[in-house]
Fold this protein.
Amino acid sequence: MIALVFSLLSCGASDLGGINTTPPDHSVWNELLGKYVKEDGMVNYRGFINDQEKLEAYLNTLSNNPPDREKWSEEEQLAYWINAYNAFTVKLIVDNYPVESIRDLGPKLKIPLIKDVWHYKFFKIGGQESSLDEIEHGILRKEFEEPRIHFAINCASFSCPPLLNEAFVPERIDQQLDQVAKSFINDPKRNKISKDKAEISSIFSWFKGDFTKNGSLIDFLNQYSKVKLSSNAKISHLDYDWSLNE
């Protein structure tokens, strides 16, 4: 958690992007997710290892086709960055498998001058070295007024919102974001909600400002929760399980 808090504060706006690029086809990523991610979000990393050539081909497509902010639609950009975050996270685990937790990779990699594994620059976007931290905090959280991204990106850990077993695509991304928001908030393994009391994910504490720009946290939860919270419901946060999501 300490490392995550550092990440929240560290990354400024990003200049990652391209000029005259074309939004990539996400069908290869969709195929891999369908094969190796269960409906509950558990990941078969050994399967990804066996199909590593396809994974790397998709990642190369992403690296060589960064979003053109002037020409791509917001939906195209959002789908790109969410898929990129998730696909490069899978690569990070695959390249260092087996591992018990993504947080163990910081010390394991022994890269100097990085605070944690999220700051590790292990891939390129448009020729520029980048990190998961830059995608999440420098782009997704800074450039899009979209709190549902927190339920779409996956940190390879059990308490994270489950990895969706399909690629995010521009033409359905609003529907997909609603789907992952409802799924996560109503998942009793990750949030326990009743009318007068809620024990919710620490994500809602770490990123509270993202969820309360247009109302209270309870207002936000009630948009997606099957059980509606009263305005004075008691809110607490669950411990976070960083064990690998496999």
